[in-house]
Amino acid sequence: MYRSFKEYGEEVKVYRRTEKKKKSLYDRPMEKVELYQSLLFDEALENRQVFNRKIIGKDDVDLAQLITRLNISDWVQQGYEIVRKNEDVCPFCQQTLPEQFEEKLSSYFDQTYIELIDELNNTTNDYEEKVGFLISQIDSLSKRDTTFINIEKVENLRKLIKAKFDENLCLLRKRRRNLVELLNLLRFQKQLGEVNLEILNANEKVREYNTLIDNARIEKENLNSDIWRFIAEKNKNDFSLFNRKSQK
Prior knowledge:
This protein has 248 residues and is an all-alpha fold. The chain is built from 8 helices and no strands. Residues 16-245 form the Protein CR006 P-loop domain.
């Protein structure tokens, strides 16, 4: 049985539509993309009281006024550690120290002083660790697929946060040397908020892309059905002819 030119034309159209659909579904990556995670930082860490509290020794010791006036508590504390190892002899001039001198220093650097020093050191280390980790998280954004997120803007924000962090490290080192100086850390919540806004926008794009992937899987199933339908329709006459011959 011969087919008309129109029938052949329709067949070509169906074939071309099927081929185009096949390319759009199979000739691109079909993996879904994970959402970006928002970045978190506990602002309470910057507001710890130990950063804004003068750390001085016991004020009822007769050495306290001199140490406070000259702002040398940190220097005296270091010297005290040396004195304790030299059995009442000055490690510098080798003269015998005044009576009860070590005892007075021990009273000045009491348990409260020691606990505050430990708290300052622990809080400083905690701050350095957590902000350092935060910056590494921002760095990792650029290592992912840059299709969805504005890497240039995120990188500029990272540089601003890193600059403030570096300045804060200098302030923290200075604070450790000068225990009576109050500390005001530079804040970077505004920049972090902008990074999270970029992540929010990127996740919208990721969700749209993943929806397309889900739909593409359904379309693939439909395409497979269309192909088999096309093959069956194309060979329908041949099947009919074969069946008639088989029945003779």
